[in-house]
Every structure is written in C-alpha cells, then in structure tokens.
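To illustrate this point, we now present one chain and its tokenised fold:
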Amino acid sequence: MRILITGGAGYIGSVLSETLLDANHQVTAVDNLLFPQPSLLGLVHRPGFEFVRGDARDSRLMAELVPKADVLIPLAAIVGAPACDLQPRDAREINLEAIEQLLTLRSPQQMFLFPNTNSGYGSRPGETCTEDSPFAPVSLYGRTKVAAEQKILEAGGAVTFRLATAFGASPRLRLDLLVNDFTHQAITTGTLVLYESSFRRNFIHVRDIAGAFLFALENFDALRDQTYNVGLSDANLTKLQLAERIRLQVPRLTIIEEEFGQDPDKRDYLVSNEKIESAGWRPRYSLDDGIREIITACSMLPTQPFRNV
C-alpha cells in the first residue's frame, strides 16, 4: 500500500517507516525536521521511500499528498505535557487542527491509523483503565490528543491506539521519555532522585508501537472503528519499581526518594491491554530489552541532549 506518515522522521515515525518498508509498503514521510536529527538517512536507498520536507499544517501540501495515499498515519505532534505547555498554539494546531484538516481531505476509502496517548486517562490510582474508561486529561497534551481521537472515531474508517509511555532506541532518539531518561541518568550520573515515586505508568517499546500499526494495517477490517490500549501488560510499574528494574542492569545506581517536585501530567493508573491482545497482537520487546538498548546507546551519544524540551 501507499502510506503517508506525517511526523515521519520522529521517534516513532522513523521506526515505523522502516517497519512498513520491510513489509513491502511504499512510504511517504513528511516532516519539518524541527529536531535536527537525520533519522531517515538510513532509508533513502530503499525502493518505495519518499521524503517530503514540510509541515503537517500546510493545507496546500496536504491536499497534494493525501489523495495519493491508501493509508494515512498522522504522527506529527507536539508530544508531552512540558513541550505543549511551552508551545500551546503549536500544540493545538498540530495535535488537533491538522487532524481535522486531514479528515476533510481524506476519502472514505482511505484507512486512518492514529496514535493517541493513554495519558488521557488522567489520574486513577489503583484503577485499571480499559478502552471504556472515561477520559480525564490533566494537560494540554492529553486534551488535544483526546479531542483528535474523538474526531477521528466520529468520522469512521479508522483505528486508534492509546499508547503507553514509549521507550527504547530509535534513529530519532528521545531521552526525555521516562525509561530512557532514567536509564541515561543511571549511566551518566549513577543516581536517580525520584519524586512522586509511587505514581504508576504503563510502558511499550517503540518497535512494538510500529508493530501495532502494522498489525492494524494487516487486520484493518476486524479492528476498524475501534480504539485499543497498546502497552506491556507486565509493565504497569511505579517510578520506584522502574528504577529498581534499571538497577538490575546498572548495579552502582543509587536511588533517592524525595518529594520536591510534581509531574505536570499527573499520570497514575494501571492499564489493561487485553483488548488488542485478544485480537491477536503481542509485543516482542521487554522493558529489560529497552533498558539494555539505552545502556548501549549511551556509549555512542554526543553531549547534546536528545529531548523535546
């Protein structure tokens, strides 16, 4: 199929582009390269790959590209509560308004695959969130992504994913994601200072996210017009539990619990991934796999940070 990915050079997009090319699809990746990492250079030799430097908000560009695609995957976004708070206008325009624009440009025959975030569940200590749990987003990031998912499901012909917190190595590396951040700190400083250490999150490897998109593409008729939580069922962990898992691979790590700060997204919940597992999808990468990847990556990283904020 011909697949259009906005944000195709991003943390997820660069891995997804490779995954789809490996499955013999054609990929057009659109990205404005806001973060100057040459994450798609390894794909330029691949048949069926096209890169377009542009902005997902550009109505003229999107009107040109959308009709050529069989599948639309809008990954372009301002990601994370801190980044959205720093760029609120861009967050609304990219996370929501660009999605609304795509919905007006698409035809009913085009498949639509969308990544939401499970941070839209908000704070539910001790409660297990399923796809039927009501949304209660506590950040601009969560609100824009939730609103976009609702618009997409209303339009139909789509599959949406509520992604757990991603981790693992990617050509467009991010070290501001919790597992990657904690592992990087453990290697570079030998110390983790935790606040709100009992807050619980669910996690998923970036390559399993790409695998979930491929699974939806190959099983679209069975999954269409529904949403699915995508995470590791054995990785509903508190921050402290995550730190202790990292210490198994970084024994010199010192963990200090302090209550000096607050999480801007206030996420604290358990997530059930039973629905997508019942449909036949299974993750391939463990939390320990991702920690090991970041440990290895740390030895080859330059000094500048790989962070969104």
